[in-house]
Write a structure and sequence with these properties.
With about 525 residues, the chain is mainly β. The protein has helices spanning about 125-130, 135-140, 180-185; strands at about 40, 50-60, 75-80, 80-85, 110-115, 120-125, 145-150, 150-155, 160, 170, 175-180, 195-200, 215, 220-225, 225-230, 245-250, 255-260, 265-270, 285-290, 300-305, 320-325, 330-335, 350-355, 360-370, 375, 380, 395-405, 410-415, 425, 430-435, 450, 460-465, 470, 485, 490-500, 505. Strand 21 (about 320-325) and strand 22 (about 330-335) form a beta hairpin.
Length: about 525
Amino acid sequence: MKIFAFGLLCAGLSGCAASPTATPNTQSQPVAALPAAVVKAPGPPSVASGPTIPFNLEVIEVPGSTLPALQSYSSAHAQGKWLVLGGRTAGLHGFGPGTNNFPRSTANTLAYVIDPSSNSVLGSVDLVANLPANLSGPLTASNPEFVQVGSQLVVLGGYGKDLASGKMTTFGSIISINVDGLVSAIVAKNNKIAGYFLQNANPDNRVRVTGGALKYNSGIFYLVFGQNFTGDYSIQNGDYNKAGGQFQQYTEKVRAFTLGNGLAIKDFNQVDGGYDPSLPYHRRDLNAVDIIRGDGQTPGAMVYGGVFKAGQVAGHTLPIDVGYSSSVTNVSVALQSGFNQALSQYDCAHLTVFDAASASSFTSLLGGISQYHYDASSGQLVLDALNLSVGIDGLPFINTVSTIQHKPDSSFAQFIQPNALPGLLGAEAQFLHSLTLTTGAGGQLFDNGVINLPALTGRTLVGYVYGGIESFGPYSTFGTPPPGSQATGRFFQVYVTPGPTTVLPMPPLPTNPTPYPPSLPLKTEPR
């Protein structure tokens, strides 16, 4: 969710009533095989000289997508199909005082089964109509944390309407979904689905988190940063953190835990990198990406971006390394202070490729919302000056694709891909890996979803980008009339080809902002 610097949640909470929305496709829509003629993202021509990375990345749109317009959803896979549920069907949320800026009508209440190979919806089921309120409330929330573990999709937290109380909340639920069973039921048009869900008996405040990320490794879950927000969104500062008002608290922690019987938390620990007066762990709506470390086998996670710097209208630029462990007591969280991420600070579609020759993980961030933006005509980065009175928060939607290299000595490099996305896309979208990639020892896909470059023998379809927010201007609420935004069902194939490829160097970060012309008055959001 694009939100102004004193913002609420994440693109996941987007629900602007004024934004155009697409009608979800609830019927099976068989489509012919993906067309040979696809639309390639426009951008400058291939560069003749410059830095190189060990692969070529292509993001190619499939025309005529029939997929539902969704953003900030949960996803899993089984039987060669995707399961997607929750999230929102609208773009950037509203800002009107005294109104519901996250109307229930923009919550996605359907679970879909999607066949990526044919760009078609094979079936859907209404979760609210077929599940009790204690389940369907959190399952239709926006921006929950989720991870697939084997045949189970684990979903926790998320912000939405408690269907029993009628109030907006961050849920304390932990839900496990039998993905294979639910996919089979939806395709068979069987609405008796309650048996495919298991929920913790009582809400747990330790998982009341939205805008974070959930990772899993060797029996341990890692709930990475995020926040707890309770109550209706308000633009009035005085409504916050008082009795009867809205409550907002960043976790500023990585919470490591195991699950026991009934999805009750068994072992638990929460860690950060120690006290730092700049509060670098005060972040949400981040890119928590999977990586493989320099030994070519050890998994980990890297946090790129997130918002907001405490007391500032700004995104975070320093990465955070999350080190996994065999015990919740030995998890490591380390701020990487020697590098500043230039682009895509908000949660966006991303993928990571591991290159054994350089012992590096290369993470590509696709568009989204950014602290800086790239001016292709000048080859420079631009920092927009704040003008909150007219809705310029200095965090525009962008179409640039960038790649960050995490090296074995824990240093970084970053680059710009020559081709941009064909629109202001990527925020709260997902990269979903191809279900035809080989796994296991020496396979094309590591267990954590990182692509194994040496196992690719040529141009390979490694996955797809689906959904998210599409904005029709860098600031969707700025202008007369404002350009607006919407959830999108646009669908892209992603190809990786091994071999040295020239990319653009990342320009230095600007030290001074560039004025952005004021126009439409707009109030800002509270911290």
